[in-house]
Amino acid sequence: MQLSALIFSAGLMACGSVLGAPGAVAGRSPVAESIANATALGVDVYGQIPADAVRVSDGSHTAEPGSQAWAWIRAQIDLPNTLETRNEIENRAALEKRQAANIGIGMFSQDWCKSHFDTGQGKAAWFDNAGYNIHHISHDNMFSVGISYRGLRSNEQLDFSKFANNDLCGNTSSPLDKTPRLINCFHLFQR
User: Fold this and answer.
1) What's the CA dihedral at 94, 104, 186, 173 to 10 degrees?
2) Cβ neighbours of residue 47 closer than 8 Å, sequence gap 6 or more
């Protein structure tokens, strides 16, 4: 009798731990590595861009690799499109009192990206709440672009340009043609 009670008790414990596990696992959502890295550096990815960012112009910042601002910029691209995220971003935009496209766009150049203009140093430029019909310029050569807060709408177009004839936005390179080798500028507009 004691052996059957022991087996029955062990069976109940095993069922409880196995049947209870999926609920705990299902409640977790994966966190992007960039968000985890930024959080580990003490960066509030829903807050303002960290103070080590270099302000280039209104709403435009640059950052060095390894800085808190770099981690914040990278994490903005991976924020999930959830109600909580949208509310946090809207609260941040309300604090800044800006009216724009409600889209964040970052441009990056990582180490080992080299051209005859580039020194190979990683750089980042972040344009928070980018506006329509404005040339958003980075004086550094960039090789990658990320979009945050939302995707492009059906009536929006994002064009990329690179340096030509002493103009940072002189040579337009549409993403439909091919991926540009380097960019210095983007232009968001409504069709």
Assistant:
1) -150
2) 92
Q: Which ranges in the chain belong to alpha helices (H)?
A: 2-26, 33-40, 68-78, 83-96
Number of alpha carbons in the 13 Å side-chain half-sphere of residue 70? 12
- The rounded distance, in Å, linking the Cα atoms of 170 and 163 is 6
Minimal CA–CA distance to 109: which of 144, 138, 83? 144
Q: Tell me: the pLDDT tens digits for 142-184?
A: 878 888 878 888 888 888 888 888 777 888 776 655 555 678 8
Q: In the beta sheet, which residues pair with residue 108? A: 124, 144
Residue 177, φ and ψ in degrees, nearest 5: -70, -60
Phi, psi of 34 (to 5 degrees): -65, -35
Whole-number Å distance between alpha carbons of 30 and 131? 31
Contact 70, 143 (CB under 8 A): no
- Single-letter residue type at 44: D
What is d(CA 34, CA 36) in angstroms, rounded to the nearest whole number?
5
> Which residue do the tokens 């861009």 mark?
49
What single DSSP character describes residue 37? H
Cβ burial 85-97 (10 Å sphere, 16+ → b, else e): eeebbeebbeeee
DSSP state of 161: E
Supply the pTM of this predicted model. 0.48
**Token pair recorded at residue 71:** 């981690």
Buried b (16+ CB within 10 A) or exposed e, 58-68: ebbbbbeeebb
